[in-house]
User: Fold this.
Amino acid sequence: MPTLETEVLVVGGGSTGAGVARDSAMRGFATILVERGDLATGTTGRFHGLLHSGGRYAVKDPVAAKECVDENPIVRRIAADCVEDTGGVFVSTPWDDPAFGDQFVKGCRETGIPVEEVPVAEVLRKEPRLEPGITRAFAVPDANVDPWKLVSANTRSARAYGATILPYHRVLGLELDGDRVVGARVEDEVKAEEVEIRAELVINAAGAWAGQIAHFAGCVVNVAPGKGIMIAMNHRLVNTVINRCKPPSDGDIIVPIRTVSVIGTTDVHVADPDELEITPAEIDEMLDEGEKLVPGFRQARALRVWAGTRPLYTPEDVADTRDVSRTHVVLDHATRDGVEGLLTITGGKATTFRLMAEQAVDAACEKLGVERECRTADEALPGSEDERYYWLGSRARAQEPVPNAEEIICECELITRTHLTEAISRGGRPNGLDDIRRRVRLGMGPCQGGFCIYRTTGILHQLEELDHEAANSALLEFLQERWKGVQPILHGDQLRQARLDDWIFQGLLGVGHLPG
Ligand SMILES: Cc1cc2nc3c(=O)[nH]c(=O)nc-3n(C[C@H](O)[C@H](O)[C@H](O)COP(=O)(O)OP(=O)(O)OC[C@H]3O[C@@H](n4cnc5c(N)ncnc54)[C@H](O)[C@@H]3O)c2cc1C
Assistant:
């Protein structure tokens, strides 16, 4: 069995694990990160996309609110290229108690969240699709954040500091020497072989799966997975993050992100974090709640629905995951369970990933008996050095002054051939078309890959010298994966689009009968 040696082994390639790997490598530790799938395919790649101001938690969960408001400006600074500064507004609709606005402002002031009551007419002028019966509105510094860019920037930085990042490496078990964790047994899922990784310290950053990893060392970590669904609408129904001004509940936020807007979410306690089934009732509820913010929401074109599971740490079993704090914990299993060599970092938000990583690596320094300062709040991530926010028009601007000078591969997301081929070569050999999708947001617009994906398959075939069977199966796999999120919500114009895609792929290409 191949064996690797390291000081720190990080388990989990979501925002937390990527942040921990970066911080650990920046502080000079030999670091390896393992992730069972592609990077950011756990909760981080399935979240709502909101860089929280903290407003959502200002009344009910002040600790989480304070963490968000402290980290929000840091993430804006170090990861500017991943953030779009949309701003956010909390609105009292006719279904909400306007008096809650006073509690909201009080909560914001007490936790340090910049908040300002703004005239409703001004908000409606800026966001004309909003419910006209809104009675109060409060502006806060919400924004959106692209999870794949964020994780990719962190792992690129970690690599530059010497870390090894191993996607498609699933932890099968932790290696113990007496009551000390000394590494992990890992399955390399691409080569289908087992690898042993010996480490001085294992940091379990497996999010909602953290309980499963800790269990390998005989420790009990109670992570209650809270499933939430989200629906992407085909364009920007709003340009500001819109929150209902009421205690957190279902379907009360619309986040405009890149070319779409996303409504969410729900919070249902599930037994297993991989249990992501979506029911028609949940979809209906989202669409009904959407109507309360944007009248006519049900008639807009819904592209896709998906679910993710929150890593909610709770010392006791709970019936309702909404009652669990959104803050995070660092657990030292030596003091807690008598097992040396293992830390768990779980809970929290994508917004607070950097703080979570800092606290986990502080604990690692203490355990390894060294004092090394954290610099992740000061050093910008790759691509964000100029501290300029992502701007929605940037891909269109890159086409100017001569539009159509370059071949466009994905019309919905304005991805040119050069942009695509650079992303393919920069990120290393892609593991399927879904991997390319995450790198550049390919196929995420209204046609859901209908026009761009056969072009991309051809380009990948040529660039990566895939044989025709591998190219065919990559195409089929992508279509099947997309279908999972499209099928539960098909109606109206999107159903017409799906029929057209079906004619292209089944009728013209006969994709199901291609060799491979
Ligand atoms: C519906 C929903 C909406 C949300 N919206 C927001 C929001 O708008 N803003 C915000 O800030 N936060 C939001 N959150 C919270 C946020 O998404 C999470 O807190 C955060 O992404 C968790 O990151 P993580 O790295 O800890 O976990 P993950 O991203 O889940 O990473 C853990 C990784 O561990 C891997 N793993 C599991 N088992 C193994 C194994 N055996 N071997 C190797 N790897 C393994 C998984 O594949 C996974 O990739 C939302 C969460 C949900 C569910």
Q: What stands out?
A: Residues 11-17, 34-37, 41-44, 47-50, 52, 170-171, 205-209, 228, 264-265, 308-311, 348-351 surround flavin-adenine dinucleotide (CB under 6 Å). The longest strand covers residues 193-204. The two ends are 31 Å apart (CA to CA). The chain has a mean pLDDT of 94.
